[in-house]
Amino acid sequence: MVTMESDAQVAIRAASAGAAVVREMYGASLTRYEKGGGDFATAADIAAEEAVLDVLRAARPDDAVMGEESGAAGAAGAGRRWLVDPLCGTLNYAVGNMLVAVNVALRDAASSAGIVAAASADPFSGEVFWTDGAGAWVRGSDGRDARLIPSAGSRLVDLNLDPPFPHAPGFRAVELMAAPEFVAGFRPRVVSSTVAVAWVAAGRRAAYLTDGGPGLRLDSVHFAAGIALCEAAGCVVTGIDGLPVEEGAGGLLVAADRETHGVLLGLAQGQR
C-alpha cells in the first residue's frame, strides 16, 4: 500500500534538504551575486534553493513555485504555489553568523487559510518548525515532534531594522526601541532572520515586529512560513496598523498573546 506524503511532510523534507546544503557550505568561501540596494545572494542560497526545488518538483510536479533566487516556475494561474526562501539571513551567514532559516510554504487558492502547509528549518540547531495549517510543531534533531506553545514570558521582542522603511517617518522600529514604555516592559533583540518569527510560535520570543509593504503574507517567500506557523500556534498576527496583513498598510506584528500585541500595537501607532 502506497501512502501519499502530506503537503506538510513535503514542506518538512524540502526545508530539511535546503538546510543540509546551508549547513554543509557554512564557512566556505562563497561567490556573491549582487542584487542591488545592498542585497545579495551567495552560492549557498542558490544551491540550497535547488535542493528545495528538487524535492518539490519530484513530490508535487503539477504545483507552481516561487523561489527567491530562481523566480516563478510553473503555470502562472496555478492554484497551488510553493514559496521558497532558501537562506533567510544571508548577510548573517556570509559573515559566519548561524542565525538563519530555510523557509518553505504552500499557498493554496482553494483554501480560505491561504497557506496550508509550511516549514522553517534551522540548519544549525537541527530543528524544523512546521505546520499543516491546523496545528504547529517543532521537530527536533532526534526526529520527535513537540507542539509549539507561544509565551510572552521572555519579554524578548525581535525587531527587524533592515531597510527599506516604507512607514518612516511615521514609524521607525529603532525609535520604538528607545521608547520608555517599551524599555519598561520588553527587551529588544535583532536577529535579522525570520527564524525569529518561528521563535514567537515556540515561546522563545514574546513578539516580532518588522516594517514592510502591503501583501506581506500571500506572496512573501520570506514571511509566509513564519506567519502560518504563528497563526496555527495561536499567536496574534497583524500588520503594524492592527489590520490583517493582507488588508492593511503593511508591516508585520506577531505576538504570543493579545496583551503583548495590544501594548506593542499601541506603541507603534503612537509614533504615527
Explain this structure:
- Helix content is 31%, strand content 25%.
- It is of the alpha+beta class and 272 residues long.
- The strands form 3 sheets. Strands 4-3-5-6-7-8-9-10 form an 8-stranded mixed sheet. The chain has a 5-stranded mixed sheet with strand order 12-11-13-15-14, with helices on both faces.
- Helix 1 runs antiparallel to helix 2 and helix 6 runs parallel beside helix 7 (224-233).
- The protein is globular.
- The protein starts with 6 loop residues before the first helix and ends with a helix.
Q: How far is the N terminus from the C terminus?
A: 59 Å
Shape: globular
Please state the CA-atom Rg, rounded to the nearest Å: 18 Å
Mind summarizing the main beta sheet?
8 strands, mixed
How much of the sequence lies in strands comes to 25-35%
Say how many strands there are: 15
Strand arrangement across the biggest beta sheet: 4-3-5-6-7-8-9-10
- Low-pLDDT stretches are none
The sequence of SSEs as H and E is HEEHEEEHEEEEEEHHEHEHEEH
* Tally of contiguous helical segments: 8
Mean pLDDT: 92
> Helix content range of the residues, please?
25-40%
Structural class: alpha+beta
